[in-house]
Input
Amino acid sequence: MRDQSRAMHEPQTLSNPLGEELSTRRTPEPCVLVIFGATGDLTHRKLVPALYNLAHEGQLPSAFAVVGFARRPKTNDEFRAELKDGVEQHSRFSPINPAVWDAFAQGVVYYQAEFGDADGYVGLDKLLQQLDRERGTAGNRVFYLATAPTDFATIIEQLGAHHQNASARIIVEKPFGRSLATARQLNRVLAGVFNEPQVFRIDHYLGKETVQNILALRFANEIFEPLWNQKYVDHVQITVAESLGVEGRGGYYDQSGALRDMVQNHMMQLLSLTAMEPPTGLGAEDIRDEKVKLLRAIRPIAPARVQQISLRGQYARGSIAGKIVVGYRDEPKVAPDSRTETFVALRLLIDNWRWAGVPFYLRHGKRLPKQAAEIAIQFKAPPAVLFAAESTAPLQANVLVLRIQPDEGIAIRMNAKVPGTALNIQPVKMDFRYGGSFGARSPDAYERLLHDVIVGDSTLFTRDDEVECSWSVMDALLEGWQSSPAPFAYESGTWGPAEADALIEKDGRQWRRP
Amino acid sequence: MVVSGGDLDVMPNPTQLETFTAGVETAVDVPAIERQLRELWQLAAESEKDPSRRQITRACLFNLVVYCETDADRDHAAEVISALTSRHPCRAIVLLAKADRAQSELGASITAHCHLAGAGQKQVCCEQISIHASGESVEHLAAAVLPLLESDLPVVLWWNGVFLDRPERFRRLSAVSDHVLFDTSAWPEPEKRLNSLARVVVEAPHVRLADLSWTRLGLWRRLTAECFDEPHCREALAHIRRVEVTHGRGPGARLRALLCASWVASQLGWPPPDAAARIGLSTHEDNDTTSVGIVSVALKGDGVEVCVRKNHGERTASATVLVPNVCGLPRTRAFWPTDDASLLSQELDRAARHRVYERALTMAAALVPLQAGGARDSARRD
Output
């Protein structure tokens, strides 16, 4: 299989003299995007609005079509009308430009079949060939698995059985397994049909501008990288806080939990981008190689250490923004005796030259006081000898905070003298806000990621070994938790269980208040 | 020389801060501009502690120096700056030069353009300093600008009018600029000035010059180029022998048609004499209410024809391709907005020098005398 299939066209080498200076982005080639699970929320809220935005910006190929593959009966017109509603609500270019929408919608087709029905794939093949003839899509395919994970293997195997793997790419939505073993199983199924360069595991966090900006901040500024190591950094805190609860996803979430839902994918991406070594280039493999090296350097977690370095919590009744909210166990479709964690705090160590001895504290929870995602680089405290006699308070360490969402930006805390005759030192904050400096709305993460798939750039997608490295860390925690007490309860609207404070305070540190 | 006095002679109060951030101009002494601004921002910072007041933050990514010679241009510039600063926060310094006035005067005013960064967020404000000079004081404008430039930030000079006619003022202001924007579509008889313009643009060593006429051609160039993007279409480029551009009679339309045709010629490596023979410009009585100046661009050759045509009554253009073995389907794209704020915004998003424009301009300048007989130009009416 590895040598048989061709991942659409190779990057272009001939240049178009008329295209000089017009765009720095690669030209997408004609293709059909087949969305499995096309009647779902993801298609309406994210995928098609992102495709429309790309059409609006002229970023789609000249010959392009979308096939919505799903089980429910529906006509093309009904499907297009539903998609249009979704675009009206969720596109950043609302109201819809009729000329752009009409041109885009002409290439949208609905196709009804069961995911496991072989005849359905025979019909799909005929439809795709018809689109090749009518819309010039040149035999190139992008398959998007926007279905429940339980359908992934069925669809992938059917695509292989019906020879849909040549000149194709496949996009897989998270979760990429629910353990190391199931992640490996999914990777094996994918590798049986597609080459790894054809596989795009999508983690929408990587499509966020501010996540991509971590690389720019680190490697496009000379002042930060020399300090980005164990000599100057005391510790790093990565926080992803949500004020929302499970929001109707109780059935899924109760089987998943915070570790699988957020930490294994999004937070490990933030960790690896923050801590990895400089890549040799900005190519997909250059960056992904460094991320994998970093993940491999995370100190293995022995079962006996799990309770020392991690903590689970589960939200109880409380109030968010003045409104009473129910506890997790009272959420619909959640077991009344559920032991699923909605809060995780972790202390990881990275055994490499750069980070030896620097703890990375990861914290994620639902029903916390506010929504906030940030990476805080806490520098070592300056020697106090110079100001100790004059100043009443100890000097605070510098902190560099990368705010991922909301209010994306970068802030640095430093010490300054308070005006006056006394030598009082006080921390001050310099704050750069994207919203204030770059007025344009950033493209949605899916917009960037879908374009990258169409042009074949896998830099912002997760590689098979990256997924497995991340799961090997999570597996150790999940195994250790099996024999540990139930998660600690915490009141909704607080920053998690009090025991989480103890996890960091025993190291002489404190959680930040984002 | 008279330096006019200002309304803000003492420490500003909250009312003056409200006036300033509401976009109302307040007269200030020229030497005191920086101090007055500093005190207003200091007051804004102190107001943050008062929950009854609007939360304000100042943003600045570059200096925008705008040169104008008429009140109408100055008023228009203020509107453009107000629209532009929500996307490109800057310190705007608007210069109004009236050299024909007998009395030598130099005065200034300040205001701010504020926008909400998002629902429930602070207002983001940008300063605008206006300096008006008349008589001999006009020659002191550059000196007045220098101390007002925010340090360590790029300087963008937007020149309203023909800078070739004001060589000394332009030299002094462009010397401190990183990026100069101008619009040949607003120039009288621009084709007669192409040679001089090409010399200035190509020879400017440290400054990027950008012509908004070129910016307006963005969609035409893009749609035309896209027809040859896919590898199997690219070889058709070698067969192109002729470029025909049809244009309306609006301001700068003919100049943009010439630039567009010159772009094709220079990018395909045609020498000027060949290009003169292969380029056809024609005028079309354009009654389209959504006119963008150019009506169509056609590239023709052996068995190849690519035509990009503006759709009548719509802000869109469509490209059709006739190439052996099919190179894609007809495609339609919407024109980007062509108001000055949008054009400036597009240019501010761009960091690199316009090498392609420089080549097209040089070609256009070479073609003007070759086409002087008008043999290649024709007028037609639908």
